[in-house]
Amino acid sequence: MLSQVFHDIEKKIITSLKDNPKQTPEILQNSTGLSPDQIRRGIEWLKLKELANVDESKSSIISLGKNGKESLEKGLPERRLLDLLENGPKKLNHLQKELGPIFGPAMGLCKKNNWIETTSDQVSSIFASNDELPGEKTLKQIGNEQLPKSLIDADDLSALLKRPDFVVEEIVKTKQITLTDSAKSINLDASSGGIDVEAKVPEVFVARTHPLKDTIDEIREIFVTLGFSEIYGNMTQSSFWNFDALFTPQDHPARELQDTFYLDGISAKKIATADQIKKVSESHKKNWRYQWDINEARKMVLRTHTTCVTIKHLAETKPDEARVFSLGRVFRNEKVSYKHLVEFNQIEGVVVGKDANLRNLMGIQREFYKRIGITKIKFWPTFFPYTEPSLQTMVYNERLGKWVELFGMGIFRPEVTKPLGITKPVLAWGGGIERIAMLKYSLDDVREFYNNNLSWLRSATKCQ
Amino acid sequence: MPVVELSYSSLQKLIGKTSKKQIADSLPFLGLDIESEDKDLVRIEYSPNRPDYSTDFGIALGIQGLLGIKTGAIKLKIKKSKQYSISVKPDVAKVRPYVTGIVAKNGKIDDKTIKQLMAMQEDLHFGIGRKRKKSSIGIHDLDKIQFPLVYTTSDRKHKFIPLNSEKELSINEILETTEVGRDYGGLLANFTKMPLILDANKETVSFPPIINAAVTTVTTKTRNLFVEVTGINKADTEDMLSVVATILQSAGFSLEAVQISGAKNSTPKLAERKMTVSPLLINQTLGLNLNTSKIVSSLKKSRLDASAKGKNIVCTIPAYRFDIFGPMDLVEEVALGYGIQNLEPTLSPSQTLGQTNPISLQLKSLSQTMIGLGYLEALNSSLTSKRVLYEMANRDPKTIISVRDSKSQEHTILRDSVLPGLLENLSKNIHESYPQKLFETGTVFSSDNPISETMNLSAVSAHQDANFTEIKSVLQSTLKTGFDLEIKTKTTEHPTFEKGHCADVMIDDKKVGIIGEINSKIIENYKIRVPVIGFEISLSESILKSL
User: Fold this and answer.
1) Is B341–A379 a contact, with Cβ atoms under 8 angstroms apart?
2) B284–chain A nearest CA distance, Å
3) What is the ipTM of this complex?
């Protein structure tokens, strides 16, 4: 067999068990001189190495009860009765006085066993006084000790077990440690000078990127390989680019304080070119029939989507052909819950091209999902103020056993593109990244991504 | 998104021959999300641009179309009548200039229908009514009203018994003591004259946009309805009326016209519109090659009427479909009628080459460097709190950028520093094993015409032997490896750091950040039991290269 390296504790336990093959931990403690904790650990190590067997068993321990102890000192009640009768018959009332409370039980037992004869007022013994009474042997055997039930003659014990509080029976669990066959052949003297390469070692934790960042990077990479270039934009935006340029009327419920974070008392002086402002406001007035207010458009908000970054980019560059995306934090004034964060990441991209169509848009989505490992998807119609037609992707969550909504998409409305001088169709899509990361890391609570809980960060599997 | 609760069995009755499964399968393809189901009951989320989907009558019309049971536009049959009229007084012009209305007769109204009508009314108020500002609706028991009506104003002392009340209240009392009065009274705050609809006996019918009179309350005994819509824009009031009229007709009522006249008001036409769309636009947008008859049948499935005219399609749009702005909306109607499930995704080759933003690439390299030095990446919100940013970190707030009316106390101001978040993270992990080393790259905000956003890097290290030398070594090595930059440290004081153990970080004699041992008071406040060291530097100005 291979040479193994043992800890001193293990060596002492093995040596002791070779001398005395079956021991309880308590006995091992005595035989090895180790502490209870060292014995516990040593046994655990040997068990893991399959060198020791631990058999747990239950056993009964017998000790004397109150009446048993009294009997040990003075004799069993029937013995005391028979002793009184040794020198001839006695009067009943005399016996009663002598024996006190045990008179009744003693008389009953002796009569039942035909050890005595009684007349109307006299009792005489017909018992051979040298014989042992049932239970007497056991009583002496137990004495003031606690004895395993297995060591006691069961018949004789039963005489006492039946009687009230003569013996007390306790069930105790005991462990018996034995060596396995392979352990029996270990030669402890043949020390190799090696180390215990099979032993457990302390944990170290890797430094790593945040799991959500891994997902973000993976998604960024996928879109770059699909021909998209990444653009950056600010998280703080004027309402003009976040809403007005996207055909969301100024009195639309989504623009209210309860959904959108407005920066307190901050308005942008310059929001867009005079021409952009003029044409966007005209489109609002004509289609939504209300008084468009430039001061409303100046109000700074925390962007509610990254679409404001792409539309601004398109308005500046007016490309005939383009694939760009922007990726970053967006904000919603919502109550934080396992489903909702006030701040989360969104990716949002566009394809501009004269032949760009809805089926292309769906194809890009399908390819993206395929690359992140989601193959079961379908498309449903939906509504967004700035796209027409509009769709959403539903993906099947195997773990939850249901369809969940992921990215939204559509073609920018002419009411959005025309005022900004964008002439080619613009396919747009986007959605939250945390939702995808939740699928990847099997999380049910989105807040975990921002808790920075080290036990999770240190344990989440990197390659999902 | 508004939600409506329906029952499958009543939908089945309205739609005609169809199974529960067919209905459930069709709903998403009308753009309706099933939020939850419980046996016969189903809760459906619908888009605010389709208020006709706020009742089972409207949804039944949609499913009939999609399944081909009944297709084409729903035509309103409005009986001409001189019996019902509203005359409008010029004094309403300032406060709420427009009124319109319709009569709906001989319908059956059970509790469920009343509930649905109420829900529809609320959704209309909230959505296209913009919280009753643009337009609002009143539905009344026709038989309790003596025509002709007058739409006029009165002062705030005018009294009547409003809905859900047993006694007469003045308009002021209504605005002050009733819930709707308090919620919507603001719309009338700038006016002394209040809009009112009175009947021939000078009885109050309605006090728009706040509340109806109690006398006209609709109950299960009501058979005939009078619907009025008031608003600040004529087209909006008629849009709203058209939805209600369509739903009531679908619910089995016969419609009769109400004559409206005076002060620029007129009887509503609720007429269909024509719109032309080219098959080319449809096929180009959807990536299909549909012939005209397929396009026409798809539009009909979307409950519109259409016919080919030359090379184009002329579409007839009922009044309640005011969500249709232009031809692109018709393209979507074709897609829905054709069936989104029938659109096969195609992957077209990209005409462009993709590129990661150089900033992203540099930040990624920086992360790799920090990770190489044993630091774990943390992520914190940019919207945080005064407690984390200033109180716990013992920093002086300079100019705070805060958001209005946040629903969360933890998220009220934009961060101007990343480090305090990392200290907060350490405090939440005091039961985890040490050393703990964290870093974060993130945007910080400052007030600057109106707001400037820059990228910072911060790191903290917490363990028994943490000291200034360690953290300076880390920063020095990071910037050397990442950007071939040399740093110098210059003694300074900062409330977050321990006095005498804190320095400004300098690159080419320019301050880019701060480094040192964290003040022991802060560590104590956070109940951290080991020394903490850290730094924060600004990446945007001197470090990241913009390409």
Assistant:
1) yes
2) 6
3) 0.89
Best mutation target, B35, B282, B346, to test chain A (most A CBs within 10 A): B346
Q: What angle do CA B251, B253, B255 make, to 5 degrees?
A: 130
Q: Where are the domains of chain B?
A: 3-66, 78-266, 273-339, 358-538
| Domains of chain A, CATH where assigned | 1-51+180-200 (1.10.10), 64-171 (1.10.10), 211-457 (3.30.930.10)
**Residues of chain B positioned with their CB less than 8 A from the CB of A419:** none
- In this structure, the strands spanning A343-352 and A426-432 are antiparallel
Contacts of A282 (CB under 8 A, 6+ apart): A419
170-209 of A, contacting B, C-beta below 8 A: 203, 205, 207-209
Rounded mean pLDDT of A86-105?
A: 84
Tell me the shortest Cα–Cα distance from A253 to chain B, in angstroms.
Answer: 7
Burial (CB count <10 Å: 0-12, 13-18, 19+), residue B147? middle
Q: Which CATH number describes the domain made up of B358-538?
A: 3.30.930.10
Predicted pLDDT at B269:
86
Tell me whether the CATH fold assigned to B3-66 matches the one assigned to B273-339.
Answer: yes
- CB-CB neighbors (< 8 A) of A212 in chain B: 379
Q: Which residue has the tokens 């002060």?
A: B263
Least confident of A253-267, A299-313, A426-440, B142-156: A253-267
Chains A–B, number of C-beta pairs less than 8 Å apart: 255
Helix, strand, coil shares, percent, chain B, to 5: 35, 30, 40
For β-strands B259-262 and B85-88, DSSP reports them as: parallel
Chain B nearest-CA residue for A267: B450
User: Which positions 272-301 of A are in contact with B (Cβ < 8 Å)?
Assistant: 287, 289-290, 300
SS3 (DSSP) at B285:
helix
Interface residue B147 vs chain A (CB under 8 A)? no
pLDDT at A191 over 70: no
Pick from B504, B489, B498: nearest CA to B517: B498
Q: Are strands B194-198 and B149-154 parallel, antiparallel or unpaired?
A: antiparallel
CB-based contact (8 Å) between A441 and chain B?
no
pLDDT at A212 over 90: yes
- CB of B445 within 8 Å of a chain A CB? The answer is yes
Query: For B207, what's the count of Cα atoms within 13 Å in the CB-facing half-sphere?
Result: 32
Architecture per CATH, B3-66: 2-Layer Sandwich (3.30)
When computed from its CA atoms, the radius of gyration of chain B, rounded to whole angstroms, is 33
**Distance to chain B for A196, nearest Cα, Å:** 25
Smallest Cβ–Cβ distance between A388 and the set B29, B332, B356 belongs to: B332
The phi, psi pair for A122, rounded to 5°, reads: -135, 150
Which of A208, A266, A333 minimises the CB distance to B376? A208
Top-level CATH class of B78-266?
A: alpha beta
CATH dotted code for B273-339: 3.30.56.10
The rounded distance, in Å, linking the Cα atoms of A164 and A171 is 18
Query: Are B525 and B504 a contacting pair, CB within 8 Å?
Result: no
- Locate B195 and state its tokens: 């809009």
Nearest CA in chain B to A356: B285
Q: CA B493 → CA A143, A247, B503, B517, B518, distances in Å?
A: 81, 51, 7, 11, 11
- Looking at the DSSP bridge assignments, the partners of residue B45 are B3, B33
Q: What pTM, to 2 d.p., does this model score?
A: 0.77
Gap from B392 CA to chain A (nearest CA, Å): 18
